[in-house]
């Protein structure tokens, strides 16, 4: 079995979401259409943004939001810097930087309410 290497998020507007992710990821999508956008991430994982109204086959769960995209960074300073940068860009911050059991973290939301957690793993 291989590891997952593609994440799909159902979104209201792929264009709006692609603009948001372009800002926070610092890169343009490698594919964009009225119903879909895709980003190639440095890790090799692909992030797809699919219009929730055109998902095939239709998925009732496409209209809900659950889970988080987690982005691990090198250290607490990188968490704080990312938080400041996103806050300056007007990204919705759901939780200010805080020390949790797993490390230093903050939580944000994309335009569709998908949760984005940036964290520095706690040293073991």
Q: Any overview of this molecule?
A:
This protein has 2 domains: 1-58, 2-Layer Sandwich (Signal recognition particle alu RNA binding heterodimer, srp9/1), CATH 3.30.720; 67-124, 2,3-Dihydroxybiphenyl 1,2-Dioxygenase, domain 1 (Roll). It is 20% helix and 39% strand. The chain has 2 helices and 8 strands. The strands form 2 sheets. Strands 1-4-3-2 form a 4-stranded mixed sheet, with helices on one face. A 4-stranded mixed sheet has the order 5-8-7-6, covered by helices on one side. The radius of gyration is 15 Å and the shape is globular.
Summarize this entry quickly.
This protein is of the alpha/beta class and 124 residues long.
What secondary-structure arrangement, pairings included, does this model have?
Elements: E1 6-11, H1 14-25, E2 31-33, E3 36-40, E4 46-51, E5 68-72, H2 76-88, E6 92-100, E7 103-109, E8 115-121
Parallel strand pairs: 1-4, 5-8
Antiparallel strand pairs: 2-3, 3-4, 6-7, 7-8
Q: Helical segment tally?
A: 2
Measured distance between first and last alpha carbons: 28 Å
Total separate domains: 2
The CATH topology of the largest domain is given as Signal recognition particle alu RNA binding heterodimer, srp9/1
Mean pLDDT: 90
What is the CATH C-level name of the largest domain?
A: Alpha Beta
For the largest sheet, list the strands in their spatial order: 1-4-3-2
Main sheet properties: 4 strands, mixed
Total strands: 8
Q: Please identify the structural class as seen in this structure.
A: alpha/beta
Segments where pLDDT lies below 50 for 5+ residues?
none
Helix content: 10-25%
Question: What Rg is obtained from the alpha carbons, in whole angstroms?
Answer: 15 Å
Kindly estimate the percentage of residues that lie in beta strands according to DSSP: 35-45%
Q: What is the H/E order?
A: EHEEEEHEEE
CATH A-level architecture of the largest domain: 2-Layer Sandwich
Name the overall outline.
globular
